[in-house]
Amino acid sequence: MAIAGEKNKYRAIVKQQLGDAELFESINSTQISPPYRIKGTMSRNAFGDTTANIIDGIDSLLESGDIIKTDRATTVAKTRISDRDVIIKRYNNQGFLNSLKYTLAGSRARRVWRETHLLQQLNIATPTALGYFDVLHKGRVIRSYLINEFCPEPILHYLLLDKLIPINDWPKIVGLVRELLCDLHGKGVTHGDIKHSNIIYERGKLILIDLDSLIIHRTTKSLQRHIKKDLSAFERKINSDPEEYIKRKKIELNISD
Ligand SMILES: Nc1ncnc2c1ncn2[C@@H]1O[C@H](COP(=O)(O)OP(=O)(O)O)[C@@H](O)[C@H]1O
Ligand SMILES: [Mg+2]
After folding, report:
1. Which of 186, 180, 192, 188 is CA-nearest to residue 217?
2. Helix (H, G, I), strand (E, B) or coil at 205
């Protein structure tokens, strides 16, 4: 694909799509969670409840859900909103400088929200993003949230750890990841964090998640450099001995048979 030309076409489609007021509600309000300003976009059809209720109650939703992962940077939980299983990713407050950076450059949630729609336009499977919003205090983004559709199928990590496939089938999965990367890279995009926990396996197909380090490249030079990084992660992590992976993870996670 010619990097700049085609990409601009898709960006324009996404811009138009996200600007469609019938499909998406654009939020810029100090009324929902005072004293904070809330800025974001939410899908209109995804939830029965009102956007304001979801936004105001997002932390209790997150904390009462199944917390999948939490660290300084993000907290990820599976929960239900209006009878729909969703994944909420909270980009935590990481201090003044980070907050300033995301205020000036745009938040991670906002970027991933747009990139998700773009990937879908490019026909790369990734869970549908249902909404995102930033929480601003005194003009600065202090935390953000991304709400994604939940995919019930396992990540590659569990394919191996829970023995969901015979170990001899692993080379087929490796082949699928190779094809996925080839497709992605051919479209001028790199993922930046290729590993077992960022790819979902759904009946012979792969779904790419965790788009935080995704780049849609504008120049061939930067594309080539980042393709190398993706391929090196692929070789080191995915295209490695699956028995070794299971053994190492069991030690890391303190699991015995
Ligand atoms: N849409 C989704 N459907 C199902 N599981 C998901 C989804 N998004 C994330 N997860 C699960 O949550 C984990 C952490 O999410 P991820 O976006 O990778 O966060 P992090 O940046 O902390 O790695 C993933 O490894 C996966 O197990
Ligand atoms: Mg991840």
Report:
1. 188
2. strand
Is residue 126 within 8 Å of 207, Cβ to Cβ?
Answer: yes
Q: Are 86 and 123 in contact (CB under 8 A)?
A: no
Any idea how long the chain is?
257
What's the pTM value of the predicted model, to 2 decimals?
0.94
* Tokens linked to 33: 């969670």
DSSP state of 155: B
Higher pLDDT, 8 or 178: 178
Q: Per-residue b/e over 225-240, b at no fewer than 16 CB within 10 Å? A: ebbeebbebbeebbee
Position 14: which residue type? V
**Nearest alpha carbon to residue 131 among 51, 42, 50:** 42
Ligand 2 centre distance from Cα of residue 131 (Å): 19
Q: Residues 107-152: pLDDT tens digits? A: 999 999 999 999 999 999 999 999 999 999 999 999 999 999 999 9
> Phi and psi of 127, rounded to 5°?
-60, 145
Instruction: Kindly give the distance from the C-alpha atom of residue 75 to the centroid of ligand 1, in angstroms, as a whole number.
Output: 10
Tell me which residue has its CA closest to atom 11 in ligand 1.
68
Determine if ligand 1 sits within 6 Å of the CB of residue 115: no
The distance in angstroms from the start CA to the end CA of the chain is 48
pLDDT score at 3:
60
Instruction: Round to whole Å and give the CA distance between 256 and 81.
Output: 35
CA dihedral for 80, 120, 236, 168, sign (positive or negative)? positive
Is ligand 1 within 6 A of the CB of residue 197? yes
Find where tokens 């904390």 sit.
63
* Structural domains of the chain, ranges and CATH numbers in brackets: 3-149 (no CATH), 156-253 (1.10.510.10)
